Amino acid sequence: MVTPAAWTSDELDRIADSEELELAPARADGSLRKPVTVWVVRDGDDLYVRSAYGPGSRWYKGVQERHEGHVSAGGVEKDVRFAEPDGDVNDAVDDAYRTKYRRYDASVLDPMVRPDVRATTLRLVPR
Question: Which strand ranges, in their side-by-side order, compose the sheet holding 68-73?
C-alpha cells in the first residue's frame, strides 16, 4: 500500500510563515499556467488557499480543470493536488486568515471570509 504524500514539518513551517504563495495550476496537458500570488494559511498539518475574488477568478477556474499544479513559498517548491477540504474546516481557516493577516485593513481581510470566497477553500496536498 502506498502512503499518501505529506508535508514535512519544515515545509509546513516555511510555507505557513511565508506572507504569500506562488500557485501555478496545471492545464489539461499538464503544462503549468502562469503563477499567481495568493495568501496561504495553515491549520494543523494542512495548508489552505482561497480565491479572494471568488469562484470566478481565472486561477480558481484553472485549478478546476485538472486539480493539480505547483506551489512555491518560503524556499519550498512542490507539485500539489488541489483538494476539497476534509469536513467543515472553514471556521478554522477563517481564524487562520484573521490571525495571520490581522495587520491588514478590514477592507482587505474581510473579503477572505465572505461566503463566496469560503466556498473556494482548497487544501494543498503534496504529490
Answer: 36-38, 21-25, 68-73, 76-83, 122-126, 46-49, 40-43
Quick check: 86 pLDDT over 90?
Answer: no
Give the Cα separation of 35 and 23 in Å (integer).
5
Q: What is the span of the domain harbouring residue 54?
A: 9-126
- Residue 79 sits in a domain whose CATH number is 2.30.110.10
User: What does pTM read for this prediction?
Assistant: 0.94
Number of alpha carbons in the 13 Å side-chain half-sphere of residue 54: 6
Amino acid at 84: E
Residue 1 has pLDDT above 70, yes or no: no
